[in-house]
Amino acid sequence: xxxxxxxxxxxxxxxxxxxxxxSRAALDVDDLIIPANSLVAIIGYSGSGKTTLLNILxxxxxxxxxxxxxxxxxxxxxxxxxxxxxxxxxxxxxxRSTYGFVFQEGYLLHNLTGVQNVEIxxxxxxxxxxxxxxxxxxxxxxxxxxxxxxxxxxxxxxxAQRIAIGRSIIHSPKVILADEPTSNLDYDIGMxxxxxxKQLCHxxxxxxxxxxxxxxxxNMHQALKLADYIIVLKNGKASGPHPNPKDEEKLIEWLRQxxxxxxxxxxxxxxxxxxxxxxxxxxxxxYFIINFAVSDIFPKSxxxxxxxxxxxxxxxxxxxxxxxxxxxxxLLTLLIFSISFAFRNYFMLSASDPRINRITLSGKNIGDNxxxxxxxxxxxxxxxxxxxxxxxxxxxxxxxxxxxxATMGAFGVRTRTFDCYMNPNSNNSTMSGRFPLSVIALNxxxxxxxxxxxxxxxxxxxxxxxxxxxxxxxxxxxKDGQPQHKKEGVVISINALNKHLxxxxxPDKLIIDYHQATQIELPILGVTDWLPNSVNIMITExxxxxxxxxxxxxxxxxxxxxxxxxxxxxxxxxxPVCNAIETKNYIISGNAKATLIWIKNMTNVIFxxxxxxxxxxxxxxxxxxxxxxxxxxxxxxREIGVLMAKGISKPLLYSIFFVEIFIVWFxxxxxxxxxxxxxxxGIKKIVETExxxxxxxxxxxxxxxxxxxxxxxxxxxxxxxxxxxxxxVWNVLRHNIANILRTGN
Length: 745
What we know:
Structural class: alpha+beta
């Protein structure tokens, strides 16, 4: 039929739409005119392109681009002004002012009442809200005042659809696009609503307020009774607009045009061939479970040659939330465990540092208060038997192989003050040219020497002196690595050489008054920035004793001012060792015992807080996973209902979701491991730079965690996810199948 141009509403040319999942075009319109101020019904079989046409007209979707045949949709207003709406820059503005939409499902916003839903177009177009006019309009389409004050959850599907219809016309649009608006309404109300739409198209009081209604429907009876024009869509092709023939046979004839004759098929014999072997049944079941789980996580793609990364990016949104939840839980758990163990190991390593891991004895409360070599040997031999510290003379023969050492050894300390000769070229020399300096004699195997750094200077000036990788204990090793207990020489502090003895460069030798004005020239083996007990010079214990006996100063080995005891496990053995020492009336220097108690308590507190933190995260994780999986499973209620209706067993249904969560968990784990390693690597670098190198401590040992940590954390997160999924599935399965199908989306 020829429509005069002044009666055009839309003129479509070269409108084609093809979806990726379809082999043919969903819509293929070469030329179509839609008349204005009319109720135009679009009729066609399912899949004929009706909703696609409506979406393109409403600028909710775009037609395919074609260089040879440019798609055109011309819109004509009441003054017959033409606008190519596909070329409009601000389509959103045009859509909200020109169109009113009625969707097949209603699509009400659940957080708003009925009247608030209706007034949405007034808000977005910045029109004045007039509640009286709103109520009058809604009454005309059969909605009473009480109904529109309820939220969508408190009304029926048909009532919600009527509210959606009211929302489509409240702002007086020029065009109403209605996608099966009466499918959820009973016959009388449906006819009433469409009659109201037709009245809007034909009202004569104010021609400027007339509108056009483009109406997709399956209801041929309503279309024949109310439509002004009918457009027939078949396989994406449009015919019309046809004036309403008022004849159902004519309409059916239009729909049947181009149909082929009914095919006669051969008789099909269906057979049920059972699988006899257990292995066959098992593998077919496994294939079904895995295939269902994988297809539920990854969307079906036309391009099946996609790499794994694009497929991961294409994971369904519901699964992305699940992956993110699991990823966060695993990562936080591993980080908290790692950092808590790092703190604990730091305390342990700090406690094992010889500068800390020692108990110093300054004397005895009995006898002459002198610490002897016999005391040192007895203290070196302390052992632990069934949580009890025993002295060497308390250990029975049969117990020698049952206990373990409680100490790594005990080392004596002897200190003296010697006059040392100053720099002969100094202008600040004293009258005698000597300066008294404190000297300590140590066993070269004393662990404390492993923490005393040696400083070096290429030109031997103090200006260019730097710390080397050598420690003082290495200065007393032979070429084959054996300790030289009687090596002659001194290690002296930089401060003593530079300030007290006024040397500008490091000398090769140092002259001291050893005893009764006996001068001894000793080689300087090394210089350092500090020495134990804050002394200035260190000499070997073996050389010191040898010289004293050879020179007749002592006829026997002199006693010790101090004895340092180094422990195997200060955290656990320190306090029992202190108690054992006190029972023998030894005097413990300083507050070693109180420090041990503090370190042990701090280690326990850190560990407990980490456990509390992990439990808290897992509770939070379990709640988060339960909520996310429950929501995800609720969105699959229809699929679950279909499977249940087909007779799937509950264990099999649970198995599908268990496999699905395993895949999600495994993918999350693959992302967590490198990210966790990267974060820990960064933390290690910071700790190594700021703390560890300054204390000669091994960064590797600090971040050592129990072997059970990784599998333990990963297993626990997987179990939490399984529980969350099980509760989500159970929450759906506790309803009967009919309700599951009815509530499924």
